[in-house]
């Protein structure tokens, strides 16, 4: 593909799909602007541990959802549910880029909890100092990637990028430190960001009653803050709470104050229509900012 062909392709509309939070959400982006969006709940049996139970069934759901919303883009970037991926924060001695590439192959073989030849994985440098390098490693089963690519093809899409949902959410927020609490139809999710990277991800079921939702949020916040105390310096300021998804809309007295994620979103996001609820499409927006592929 020539440079001109590549540039022309990058200008083609793009659909960003998120399969997390008990729902499918889709965002169509063209010329750095959100032009169409849609979301629908997913039944419990559609995904199993974050992986499609039947790619053809999920593909049909994606196809019908996009058709109903008038989304026509064929290039597809997908956010994988976090329960289908693993992540590790690693600290390595300072070294050259060439040596780091080799070192990460050894690190992946050591830290990815399944055979590396059956995995798809990637990494990113979080922080450098005069003595060490902090690296964020992510991986998933190769079969999971292939199943989601098959879902996209069943929906008539061209899958180009797949990445863990939490990575896309972190990119959309672009915050040094935060606890993102996000409610879907049946569960509440929490993502702890430290140094701009997700270091803790958890979820719990929640009912529809206000007291049940409040208790679910309280449990997740306690877990997130306990984990933060293990990965930051003693006495560090606790990460601020950001509310996303359904928590931006419900009238529930939560156990801790928080701000809407819409107040702190990455300033480089695509242009957003006035009636667009950005907090319900965090992973989709984060995907749209991606400039390179996950290997």
Please give a structural write-up.
It is a single chain. With about 300 residues, the protein is an alpha/beta fold. The chain folds into 3 domains: about 110 residues, Nucleotidyltransferase, domain 5 (2-Layer Sandwich); about 55 residues, Dna Ligase, domain 1, CATH 3.30.1490; about 90 residues, Nucleotidyltransferase, domain 5 (2-Layer Sandwich). The chain is built from 7 helices and 15 strands. Helix 2 packs across helix 4.
* Physical arrangement of strands within the biggest beta sheet: 3-2-1-6-10
Number of helices: 7
The CATH homologous superfamily name of the largest domain equals ATPase, nucleotide binding domain
- CATH structural architecture of the largest domain: 2-Layer Sandwich
The whole-angstrom Rg is 19 Å
**Percent of residues in helical segments?**
25-40%
Instruction: Enumerate the spans where pLDDT stays under 50 for 5 or more consecutive residues.
Output: 2-8
Question: Tell me, what is the CATH class of the largest domain?
Answer: Alpha Beta
Amino- and carboxy-terminal Cα gap: 19 Å
Mean pLDDT: 88
- What is the percentage of strand-forming residues? 25-35%
Sketch the topology as an H/E string, one letter per element: HEEEEEHEEHEEHEHEEEHEEH
Main beta sheet: 5 strands, mixed
Name the overall outline.
globular
CATH fold group of the largest domain: Nucleotidyltransferase, domain 5
Which structural class matches the secondary elements?
Answer: alpha/beta
| Tally of separate domains | 3
**Total E-strand runs:** 15
